Amino acid sequence: MYIKRTLIALVVFLLSLTTAVQTTQAFSLGSILGDALKVGGISVLVDKFAVPLNSAINTLLTQHGMGTSYATKVVPIISIGDGSYVGAAQVTGPQDGINQTQAVLQLEGNFSDSRFRLKGLIPVNAKSVTNISRVQGVGVSAQIDVKI
Q1: I need a surface site. Which of 7, 24, 112, 134 has the fewest CB within 10 A?
Q2: For residues 46 and 76, what is the distance between their CA atoms, to the nearest angstrom?
Q3: Buried (b) or exposed (e) across 73-96, using 16+ Cβ within 10 A?
């Protein structure tokens, strides 16, 4: 009888411990808030530093003989998965196309059993992942990583 009670108590304890661990892993407020602050922080940084970043990239490319006569500007990169800002990019093209470009959409995938990682960067006319269109004639000339 004693062994049976001990086993039942042990099973109940292990089940409650497993449930507590799963609940903790499923809801981590610190992680959610941290991710939101990072996304919001990147958005603010890109908006605030777009003009000086654009000038710095143009200077870098010109110093290495790779300058352009086309218009340029820095815009946020938006991930297709969750619509979050994941960095910034410089876009290059005719002035009317640059004026239309509001962001760069990032699409990711794999090829050949994940041997190759694919990343598409597409200039688009909006800062959201709904109701967007590709801006024709505009390309990505630089990618900017933000350390946070």
Answers
A1: 112
A2: 6
A3: bbbbbbbeeeebbbbbbbbbbeee
